[in-house]
Amino acid sequence: MQGNRLYVGNLSYNVTTEQLEELFSTHGTVKQVNVIEGKGFGFVEMSSTKEAESAKAALDGSDFGGRTIRVDEARPPKERPKRRFQR
Fold this sequence. Notes:
Helices cover 23% and strands 30% of the residues. It is built from two helices and six strands. Strand 4 (63-64) and strand 5 form a beta hairpin.
């Protein structure tokens, strides 16, 4: 693993930022949490790569809120083409 940002998938749509932060904080310092509302996934940024690896190893495939979550290293966002506005 090269980064400290994790993708967290298969989340319940009711999961809050605070709940996800609490879950990951048992594996190190959480710098940022972003839950994508209505999509069932989010991102967690840990303070170090070592902490991110520890959280991934411990939480990938675990039960959280009645669902088996998927934890993996986050990929960098894809560049999107610029939109042209027409009148």
